[in-house]
């Protein structure tokens, strides 16, 4: 019997009133893939992520994590994932050490293992000296790194990242990329959404692009290049492919009448 995909959706639909935020989405991400999930604002990316991570129920269709249905087998699915949401929902009146202890205990980890992994994560992420400080006093970049630490503390098989590089400096971004590459090398499936397409192009082995809740393209970057006609025979960047596929390649250039 074939091994279940890390992430799979079949006919996934989510409706808000008259808005179909996700409209019949079929998606399959194999285990160990560094997967980029892209789309313009309002395309349905965050809604899809919320369904996959158990924050929203689908209106129709199914979603599975490692073969577990996210609705009927939500506990089994959630035990196997880590999540760094775009909106960092941290308990800001706890210290970083206290927060990681809380997360570890929620996952049923032994206290000794929580302490060992927390110390190592805070050290690697450059937060060791701030481990006893309240999270409310952390910068945005520090909170991003702490959110990543909490997401990987229990050694998840699938890691969901919603805009992990937004609002952080180059040093923190490089550190996070190094950690993600090491996780990928040991077989963790990484599901990334980001508007920073250069980072997606460097990190991801496969990408999917959605628009108005529907899939418009998926595959490796080379497969996307073969499927989208190029200009002048050159190799198109992911940004160029993205703009072409979502229909804004020839949109106005932002010219203003008083700026020449």
Keywords:
260 residues, alpha/beta, Rossmann fold, six-stranded mixed sheet, four-stranded antiparallel sheet, 9 helices, 10 strands
Describe the structure.
This protein is α/β, with parallel strands linked by helices and 260 residues long. The protein has a domain at 1-80 and 196-248: P-loop containing nucleotide triphosphate hydrolases (Rossmann fold, 3-Layer(aba) Sandwich). Helix content is 35%, strand content 23%. It contains nine helices and ten strands. It has a six-stranded mixed beta sheet, sandwiched between helices. Strands 2-1-4-5 form a four-stranded antiparallel beta sheet. Strand 1 (7-16) and strand 2 form a beta hairpin. Helix 3 crosses helix 4. The N and C termini lie far apart (64 Å). The model has no long low-confidence stretch (mean pLDDT 90).
Query: How many DSSP E strands?
Result: 10
The CATH topology of the domain at 1-80 and 196-248 comes to: Rossmann fold
CATH level-4 homologous superfamily of the domain at 1-80 and 196-248:
P-loop containing nucleotide triphosphate hydrolases
Strand/helix succession: EEEHEEHEHHHEHEHEEHH
Low-confidence segments, ≥5 residues, pLDDT <50? none
The helicity comes to: 25-40%
Gyration radius, rounded: 19 Å
Biggest sheet descriptor: 6 strands, mixed
- The structural class is alpha/beta
Question: How does CATH name the architecture of the domain at 1-80 and 196-248?
Answer: 3-Layer(aba) Sandwich
Q: What strand order characterises the main sheet?
A: 6-7-8-3-9-10
Quickly name the level 1 CATH class of the domain at 1-80 and 196-248: Alpha Beta
Number of helices: 9
Overall pLDDT = 90
Q: Tell me the span between the first and last alpha carbons.
A: 64 Å
